[in-house]
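Dear colleague,

As promised, here are the two records you asked about, laid out in our usual form so they can be pasted straight into your sheet.

NAME FIELD: protein one
SEQUENCE, THEN STRUCTURE:
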Amino acid sequence: MNGRPIKPIALRLTDHSMAERVQDLSVQHGLSLNITVNMLLGYAFNKVDEEGKEFTPVTVFETKEGGE
């Protein structure tokens, strides 16, 4: 950490089965959803770093100007 305060963010899990798995894991280990999600993200980033991979930005969809 660099000593700067962490700005809170909101997270929405749009995949129902993934949301259930996160909730189940949270209950199994007696952790808050916040801590569970942070641990999962940390694990994912560590795996990406270990494998020397990079995230590739992908455009899922785009809208035209004016919302047409």
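NAME FIELD: protein two
SEQUENCE, THEN STRUCTURE:
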Amino acid sequence: MYQHTMIGTAWRGHHVVLLRCNPFTNEFLSISTSFEAPTEPSHIACAETLSRFLSIGYKIMNATMISATEIQYVLTKK
């Protein structure tokens, strides 16, 4: 059933986080998030940053090489 969005109501959709990393050096490069997305502090190591987000309930929806040395992970959480 469709619910109208109302000012002041809690967000009930998906949260999205984009993580960009160098998969060859395990270097964390950047993060972008949807508004109000719960986050964890990032770490210089990409694997540790991914681990932190997975531990709070995010799931990896996609991983794409966006350049020769950069991968982008799309994480979502309900």
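A couple of things worth noting about protein two: The longest helix spans residues 46-55. The chain has a mean pLDDT of 89.

Best,
R.
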